[in-house]
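Let's practice the habit of predicting before peeking. Look at the sequence and jot down your guess about where helices and strands might fall. Then scroll down.
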Amino acid sequence: MRNAIGILMVLMAFTACANPKKAKVLTETNKKMEQVTFNSEGLKVVGNLYYPANYKKGEAYPAIVVSGSWTTVKEQMAGLYAERFAKEGFITLAFDFRNYGESEGEPRFWENPAMKVEDIKNAVTYLSSLPEVNKDKIGAFAVCAGSMYTLMAASEDSRIKAVVTAASWLQDAEAVKLFYGGEEGVNEKIAVARKAKETYARDGVVEYIETISTTNPSAAMYGPFDYYLNPERGGIKEWSNDKFAVMSWEDWLTLDPMPYAAKLNASTLMIHSDGCVLPQYTKNFFEKIATDDKQLEWVETDLDSPMQQFNFYDQEAEVGMAINKASKWFEAKL
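Done guessing? Here is the structure:
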């Protein structure tokens, strides 16, 4: 049972705004990407802005905010999808959420869903400020846990006109019990997180555990999972494999995005399969989405859950399929 819980725990890895920096239109039509900064609740956020190959100065393009799984940085799945969407004719933005990567924010490596939702809204504000972006045609795409933050943001921000998720991780209080040792295990982690917050408030000391480990069951992700361990995939130097703020557990384990479906009016496409994580939760969320302008794309697969989840991070079959379906959705809805 402990091994099963340990394996399930890793699935979590699949897992009006402050003044934006004034942007300038690119002067080079062959430039594919530039690093940009914008403000989110008074802190500097760093992102990579991708341009279509056929970008022409003076024209305004539809734009997409792209988000990856929990703990990740812009150079992982978010950047991969953003670059691919740009090739389809969109201006796209992949960025480091506050507390991660090159963005500001303390404590470092604190997975705070509420902050991430606000960061996505502030990313929309930034894109809206760009003369090369059509501010009436802004969408959002997310994979895995980023889907929670994106769907929540879109339910509260009508500037997001269309949303697409792939291999979405969606949870509630019952789901987290499955992954963290039942009610007792969840309560223990929440208690530890609250103590860590108290220590930080009092002494300024942040308690960390490993982000992923094949030997430490207490790590945020425990198991031999290639994406995060392989430097040719997600185990890149820009990402931290050994720092997950313990205080994150309270914010993460108490997050319930499910009620936000009833407030979501943006055109929504959800791509999922029985080979991904918690398929019934994606179905449940989809059924409760407020708008009728929605579609659930269920992918046929021979893979057992959750093995296809990882494939949506960087494997061509799943990524290419998601890009194709999402691009058509955005073209029609933006």
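How did you do? Confidence is low (pLDDT under 50) at residues 1-30.
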